[in-house]
Amino acid sequence: MATPLTYLSHYPHHLQDQIAQLLDANKLGDWLRARYPRVHNMNNDKALRDYAMAIKNQYMKKTQPLSKVIYDNKIHIVNHALGLHSYVSRVQGGKLKSKNELRVSELFKTTPEAFLNMIVVHELAHLKEKEHNKAFYQLCRHMLPDYHQIEFDVRVYLTELENTGHVFVPPTA
């Protein structure tokens, strides 16, 4: 393998070998575009908020509300973060109020909806489960049955993105 597969290092070697072969043959982007031919059109914070709230309201009605849902250009793959779920605590009068925020890397503005869905589901699951444990992944699979496959495909996408700098073309207005 010429290129290290950083995002796929925890997967079985036979899968890594298949991805490495596609990468070496410059066919990994074609493989991704064949699997995911269309890019979503939720390219602003309002559309992202509406999208995330629809998923939250369908699967997690009783969880704490979200105060902010945005694309964030400060989230970098270097830190192995694609989205963030944070709690912002503020003192209001004599009370401590906490608000939940969901931030998605701007990288997901020009990806297939399945990739955005996986990131949003992952971050929403943190409203209920803070750790990446069995209950967390069960909740992810409840909201998105193909969660693990799409997570793998996102990691393949990140590998190709790092290799070529682009994979998907944004939709035209």
Rg on CA atoms, Å:
17 Å
Residue share in β-strands: 15-25%
Number of strands: 3
Q: What is the count of helical runs? A: 6
Quick tags:
single chain, 173 residues, alpha+beta, Zincin-like, three-stranded mixed β-sheet, 6 helices
What does this structure look like?
The chain is α+β, with helices and mostly antiparallel strands and 173 residues long. The protein is 46% helix and 16% strand. The chain is built from 6 helices and 3 strands; from the N terminus they run H-H-H-E-E-E-H-H-H. Strands 1-3-2 form a 3-stranded mixed sheet. Helix 4 crosses helix 5 and helix 4 packs across helix 6 (147-164). The chain is globular.
Task: Write a compact overview of the structure shown.
The chain is an alpha+beta fold and 173 residues long. 46% of the residues lie in helices and 16% in strands.
Helices and strands, with pairings:
Elements: H1 13-24, H2 28-35, H3 45-59, E1 66-72, E2 83-92, E3 95-105, H4 113-128, H5 134-143, H6 147-164
Helix pairs in contact: 4-5, 4-6
